[in-house]
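User: For a benchmark we're assembling, each entry needs the component sequences followed by a predicted structure for the full assembly. Here are entry 17's components. Please fill in the structure.
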Amino acid sequence: MHKAPSASSLGPGGLDLSQAFFKPIQNTAPPSPTKRHTKIAVVGVGNVGMAIAQTILTQDLADELALIDAKPDKLRGEMLDLQHAAAFLPRTKISASVDYALAAGSDLCIVTAGARQIPGESRLNLLQRNVALFRAIVPALARHAPESILLIVSNPVDVLTYVAWKLSGFPSNRVVGSGTNLDSSRFRFLIADHLDVNAQDVQAYIVGEHGDSSVALWSSISVGGVPVLSFLEKQQIAYEKKTLEEIHKEVVDCAYEVISLKGYTSWAIGYSVANLARALLRDQRSIHPVSVLARGFFGIEGGDVFLSLPAQLGRGGVLGVTNVHLTEEEAARLRDSARTILEVQGQLDLGI
Amino acid sequence: MHKTYSSSSLGPGGLDLSQAFFRPIHNTAPPSPTNRHTKISVIGAGNVGMAIAQTVLTQDLVDEIALVDAKPEKLRGEMLDLQHAAAFLPRTTILASSSDYAVTSGSDLVVVTAGARQIPGESRLNLLQRNVALFRSIIPQLAKHSPNAILMIVSNPVDILTYVAWKISGFPANRVIGSGTNLDSSRFRFLLADHLEVNAQDVQAYVVGEHGDGSVALWSSISVGGVPILSFLERQQIPYEEEMLESIRRTVVEGAYEVISLKGYTSWAIGYSVASLARTLLRDQRRIHPVTVLAKGFYGIDGGDVFLSLPAQLGRGGVVGVTNVHLTDEELRRLRASAETLLELQSQLGL
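Assistant: Structure for entry 17:
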């Protein structure tokens, strides 16, 4: 069992109580092979990675948390800052290393590493920088944790999930991007706040590209089971398409707004990814709009492209894609989204 | 009911569905007066304040969180970043204002983290002068808007600033508490637990006194699974030296400085520590925590009104009592020395 570096003796020149304090039970059989020990690796200990790691810890989702990054001091500082809370949390093993071997045995590998979006920079502009980084990260993760599910958060998430899929050689059901899970939460928050209702009673998906060309599925939004658009029609409340588009734009701008105000986003994406981690590791079979291999769905045929669709997630990763009904307009926009992403992918020299 | 700024209509120039969507029930009686709506305000939206706010939110400890900070844009960004997680959390109202303390009114617990961050190498006591001035502008407003709240001070140097907050607020001493050595004790328990490969919650160990270089590790009352450690060592004939114990305590004190030198500040651990105190207070858990309380009259501390950490029982009324832990002569001596150091500094403040 791993111990923190200082713990073999207690303090410098110190006390070693470990042999004497507990009488061991002799001849115990090895642990039952059905023992479930969950391990999550988080790559990148910046604001996003740490918000994810800390939320996972607070929500008691894993037995072991491994932090990986290129900066050893920052990494050790973050590890200690979590370990020091031991008295306030269920016991979770927390380790950190610049060496990807630390990811061995992970059930889930969450990749947040990458340059942060500069205020005003579109997600696609980050791309070239992050592809190079993924060439160093993903093959190492795949080698050390060949059975894991890869969850990509770094932006632009759709293209980078595709890149991670190619670089890892994993089956596509085990490579997922955080996608529009958070955009959808922001969308649900706006609607819920307006109606003074709990956001969990608002079913609303934003799908497609996590970014400017995302698609709000207005036709399938419902509140407490009441479909919103047909409700408006029955109540004879007039609305214009333009209004709906402005609301959608407000959702897309949410991230940029937070970035311009506090410099980055962290908490919301932390909760979003912890929510996905729970669905995957606890086999919740719940539906989340996340970035999956979309070819073959909704008439998307131009090539291998990852984008967000309402996908059912469980211990095996992506179990299926919900057969949600799209209007012709929504389907067309989704295919446009796919084309936008494919175009950018086409310009990449992936060298794969 | 409060709405965020943009939600009176949905989107710019937008849709107003709020009247039509739900059929209201008319003539409902006002909510039962026993309706328990818990509110916490966090002053300071820096790394510490936000780690506390976010942990309180994740652990579903309150119905309403108000954030206050001097920097309006940073504050608004932090508020939005929490609100955007609405789909993943129980519904909690999240408010913020950088100019109007009325946003804190009706708080059950007010957590003050505002203040300059310790620079690597700077001792906590050096921060003092800067933070006293800040408290003179913050505390009276908090007291005015939430006269029945419990005040929890986190800003460093926490013991003196808890004293300052007590003086300025006019609150009774049982309602003014500092986060004190709650976290030092967790670090101490982590070190012991990690060495013994036992759950830290089975390690009873208090660090008391000043939160800082002059803290006091109560070795004589440390136990693991109910087994007192020092008498265990003696019975097992495992030798130990005072110096060894002292160097372990120093490792605990240095824990904070080490994290600061590695990542620039501490946040997560203090977040969990204060959320744990918030839970004990708001849910009337009557648990014992080593926190900064008015220590005059305990353990022979009589030199004046001084706040420092003692093992205190906490509940909805704030500080419910102080545990009558047995201290060795040496531990008593160190605790009183801790008190004297603090009193000396306090006297230089002119409060």
